[in-house]
Structures are given as structure tokens and as C-alpha cells.
Design goal:
Shape: globular
Bound molecules: adenosine-5'-triphosphate, magnesium ion
CATH topology: Rossmann fold
Largest sheet: 7 strands, parallel
Number of strands: 9
Oligomer: single chain
Strand order of the largest sheet: 4-3-5-2-6-7-8
Radius of gyration: 19 Å
Distance between the termini: 34 Å
Strand content: 15-25%
CATH class: Alpha Beta
CATH superfamily: P-loop containing nucleotide triphosphate hydrolases
């Protein structure tokens, strides 16, 4: 039976680790955390980490839109704003959360208190905005993040993880732990170079990682696919990895002019070409990941377990 109860934060271990400084204690805790308390087998959502390398490629726009579309396709979907310290998904989904990941990872609120319903379908685990300390999560906070996102995965069919730009340790860890990495990039050299850098960085740590590419802000039809062909060829030649292609989204001023705090465009103007392209991408995503939805995983293979394993590498 699926455990749908929200896990209240467990007290952290207070056992003394004699003779070790803070660095040593951190490593000791990680090693111990990797070994103890393997959770039982459970049913978990498929997790999709939306990443880019370069900032501003449209990750949050795509992640929120896909979360809405997947929910409308009948998948119970939650989106987690993993842009630690610079979150904005609540604005793109038209909600005003009272609590965020900041209270969750510091143990001041439970998952149920922080999780936010949206009128367009998916639940949102909102991030904090303008909070510097969230940009540098301590090891213990990262552990709580992994555990709570793992608990959320147990309740959902699909988890969309909207990452920040760059390759900070929490961003890399989230990519390593996700089932699929959805790279949102653009057909311009700086964005493609950074997308390739993400592939290279992740493959070094997890050789069997799976990447799916979305080309956003495409100025002429077909340019996205051309750029994708170059990107996948470079990845194949240099790191021996093939990438999957989900499709392109046109550059459309109505996206950037859409007012924050309103419902997303895929809800208010689903007939727009960009929204149709997003719907086609959601359909392909579901087909590529088939059977799309929750799967039974052994405890250590769940989201939390994968975070624990990969934390040892970072
Ligand atoms: N297809 C598009 N056409 C026009 N504008 C777009 C498109 N996609 C995204 N934008 C705009 O680009 C800007 C950046 O988008 P978004 O915030 O989604 O990027 P991001 O990758 O999440 O950025 P960050 O790295 O800061 O998290 C926003 O103003 C957004 O409206
Ligand atoms: Mg973003």
C-alpha cells in the first residue's frame, strides 16, 4: 500500500563524533546517512529535472507549463521550485505561498504546510526568493530537502523539478537523483555550450543519466532541430552520450509580456502556437518516458536514496 502521509521532519542525529572537525563530521554524517535507514520499497512519481546550464533559457516557463499540461493529461503532478533563493514558479502559477522550502528545510514547517494548491492543477512546493542562505544549503538541509521531495514523490504521478542555472552542488545533486533531465536550451552558441557542459558534468558522475532536449525561443521553424542535431553530435563524440529530442518552442513576445501573478498562458490562451508546441512536447515526454507515471522502486532507488548515494560523490 502506498504511504500517503506527509513525513514530519525527523530529528537529526546528535551523536558525538569524537575528534572530527566540522568537515570531517559532515563527511561522517554523509557516509552514515548513506548506510543507515534504507527506506522500504515504495511507489514513486517519475521525476523530471528541468535544467539548462545558462540562465534565462526559459526553464521556469517550460517547467510550469509542462506541470500544468501533465496534470491535465491525468497525471497527478507536483512542481518543486529548486531555484534555491531565486524562486519564481509561484508567480508563474498565480499563487502567493505563505511558506516555502526555506521553512521546510529548516524544520519549521511540514511538507503539508508548505505544499500549495494551484487553481490550474499541479501542486507547488514553492521556493524562497531573495534569501541568500537558501543559495548555500548546508549538508543537513540538503538531506531534509531530499527526504521531503522523496515523500512528495510517493504521493504523485509526476514531479517536475525546476532547477536554477549553473552547476551548484544542490542543482547537480537534483539532476543526479532525477529519472530524466530535461534540458531547456536555445539555438544560440552560449546556451548550447552550457547545455553540453551540463551533459558532460552529469555523465562524469552518472554515466547512465538520460537527457531530453527542448529548444526554446526558436526564431524560425526547424532551427531548433538543427541546433539539437549539432548538440547531440557533440555529446556523442565527446562523452559518448545520445540525447533525446522533445521539440522546439517559438520565440513569442506574448510569453515575456505575460503578467506575473496571472494563470499561465497554457491555461489562458491554449490555442497560441507556443502553447500548442508545449502540448506536443508534453505528449512526446509522456511517450518517451512510457510507462509514464509512478513506479515501484526499492528503497535505495527512490529519490531520497539516490540523493544519498550521489551526495557521497559531490
Ligand atoms: N518562448 C519564449 N518566447 C519569449 N520569451 C520567452 C520564452 N520562453 C521564456 N521567455 C522569457 O524569457 C525570460 C526567462 O524565462 P524563465 O524565467 O522561464 O527562464 P529560466 O531559465 O527559468 O531563468 P533562470 O535561469 O533565471 O531560472 C522570461 O522573461 C520569459 O518570459
Ligand atoms: Mg527559472
Amino acid at each position: 500500500m502506498v504511504d500517503r502521509a506527509a513525513g514530519a521532519p525527523r530529528p537529526a542525529s546528535t551523536a558525538p563524533v569524537g575528534g572530527l572537525g566540522p568537515r570531517g563530521r559532515g563527511l561522517f554524517d554523509r557516509l552514515l546517512g548513506g548506510l543507515r535507514g534504507t527506506p522500504a520499497a515504495r511507489t514513486e512519481a517519475i521525476s523530471l529535472a528541468v535544467a539548462s546550464g545558462k540562465g534565462g533559457t526559459g526553464k521556469s516557463f517550460v517547467a510550469t507549463s509542462l506541470a500544468v499540461l501533465l496534470h491535465r493529461r491525468g497525471q497527478r503532478t507536483a512542481i518543486v521550485d529548486c531555484d534555491f533563493g531565486l524562486a519564481c514558479d509561484h508567480l508563474l502559477l498565480g499563487v502567493k505561498p505563505q511558506l516555502t522550502l526555506q521553512q521546510l528545510v529548516s524544520g519549521k514547517a511540514t511538507l503539508d504546510q508548505v505544499l500549495c494548491a494551484t487553481s490550474c492543477g499541479p501542486r507547488l512546493l514553492p521556493g524562497a526568493s531573495g534569501v541568500r542562505k537558501m543559495a548555500a544549503l548546508a549538508d543537513k538541509e540538503l538531506g531534509v530537502f531530499a527526504r521531503e521531495v522523496g515523500a512528495l514523490a510517493v504521493r504523485e504521478d509526476a514531479l517536475v523539478l525546476d532547477l536554477g542555472a549553473g552547476i551548484s552542488p544542490p542543482t547537480v545533486l537534483t539532476m543526479l537523483a532525477a529519472d530524466q533531465i530535461v534540458l531547456v536550451t536555445q539555438p544560440e552558441i552560449a546556451a548550447l555550450v552550457d547545455a553540453y557542459a551540463i551533459v558532460k558534468c552529469i555523465v562524469q558522475l552518472r554515466p547512465n543519466a538520460r537527457f531530453l532536449v527542448i529548444m526554446n525561443r526558436v526564431l524560425a521553424p526547424g532551427r531548433g532541430e538543427q541546433a539539437f542535431e549539432k548538440l547531440t553530435e557533440v555529446a556523442r563524440q565527446h562523452v559518448g552520450v545520445g540525447l533525446g529530442y522533445l521539440g522546439e518552442i517559438a520565440d513569442d513576445a506574448r510569453v515575456s509580456q505575460h503578467r506575473l501573478g496571472q494563470l499561465p498562458l497554457v491555461v489562458t490562451e491554449p490555442e497560441l502556437p507556443v502553447c500548442q508546441q508545449l502540448a506536443a512536447i508534453a505528449e512526446r515526454l509522456a511517450a518517451v518516458c512510457a510507462p509514464f507515471g509512478p513506479r515501484t522502486v526499492a528503497g535505495e532507488q527512490g529519490f531520497e536514496g539516490r540523493c544519498k548515494q550521489h551526495r557521497l560523490l559531490l
